[in-house]
UniProtKB/TrEMBL annotation:
Domain Peptidase M20 dimerisation: from-to ranges: 170-275
Cofactor requirement: Zn(2+)
Gene that this polypeptide is encoded by: argE
Xref: InterPro entries: AcOrn-deacetyl (IPR010169), ArgE/DapE_CS (IPR001261), Bact_exopeptidase_dim_dom (IPR036264), Peptidase_M20 (IPR002933), Peptidase_M20_dimer (IPR011650), Peptidase_M20A (IPR050072)
Enzyme class: hydrolase
Keywords carried by this UniProt record: Amino-acid biosynthesis, Arginine biosynthesis, Cobalt, Cytoplasm, Hydrolase, Metal-binding, Zinc
Record protein name field: Acetylornithine deacetylase
The UniProt record lists the keyword Membrane: no
Gene Ontology MF term list: acetylornithine deacetylase activity
Keyword hit for ATP-binding: no
EC number in record: 3.5.1.16
Species of origin: Rhizobium bangladeshense
Family as reported in the entry's similarity comment: Belongs to the peptidase M20A family. ArgE subfamily.
Name of a matching Pfam family: M20_dimer
Amino acid sequence: MQTIEILERLVGFPSVVGTPNGGIVGWIRQYLQNYGIAATELPGPEGDRSNLFATIGPRETPGYILSGHVDVVPAAEGGWSSDPFRLRAETDRLYGRGTTDMKGFLAVVLAAVPALAAIRLRRPIHLAFSYDEEAGCRGVPHMIARLPELCAHPLGAIIGEPSGMRAVRAHKGKAAARLTVRGRSGHSSRPDRGLNAIHAMTEVLACASAEAERLTQGPFEHVFEPSYSSLQVGTLKGGQAVNIIPDSCEAEFEARAISGIDPATLLEPLRVAAEALPQRGFQVEWRELSAYPALSLAADAPLTRLLGELTGIEPLAAVSYGTEAGLFQRAGIEAIICGPGDIARAHRPDEFILASEIQACQSMIEALARRCTV
């Protein structure tokens, strides 16, 4: 199958984050089996979605991972010119949900499988496809934990997130959490008989605002924009009507951390503020939603040099968005971002990838295969 045909099949699976992915995983597994490649399906604790791992070449020899996620963000927003789960070609643009983030990369990798399977690789090329990346990289940690039994320790992982085929060495880490505050409802004319959950939440919101301002004072890592860690309130929900004391309020918080800082620690002052509320009769629930570490690969690292040679482009120091790369690095595997597409097109109506970007990714994988045969 050609790359565009494979991309059409992948886009046709509405593999929205947080939903069962048996359809797309099963199709990829069967596709690999058709070329004699045995893939290991690695179910997550959710029970209805899986990671997929496969090796082409000698499993006992250190090689390289090509990593991508099969999930996509929802496509319910308005503004689509056509069915988001049906590939549409227009000049050199290929439209559809996930074309650039990141089924375009998956399609290129899968299209290369027949050629990779037919040559004698001295170093293996591993395919690592994860689930629920769009929910904070929830799937890939389960796969990384299984790598020691699946292959020799890899030399590096190439994360195919959209980067315009320019390798990227660093990104910030991220943590997110949801706080629910429950009070006691009643008529607004008798606030003395109720517990206003929104009023209680404002204490945590004030803490979040103060922490966000404090972080602007450093420490700094100047490869990033902004150069400091950040924190924000992302969502806020509560109340039923203006004349009812709100008995619940929910907020979601997000922190992004520069290298060397655990992003979860940035949310800790908010959690402490929340835990003081039960002293006044409120109930609180603090739930961690996601967390992944920053990526920081040295400019002179072997994987940095390799990707510069494979693409012919000097690797970029850093990007603002996050990926699974930091999780591979935390496991002791060098990781770098390099994939087709533009992150500015992701998570938007009429998402698209260029045919020329697909071709550039094909060239990179072909160059990697040549390196793995010598």
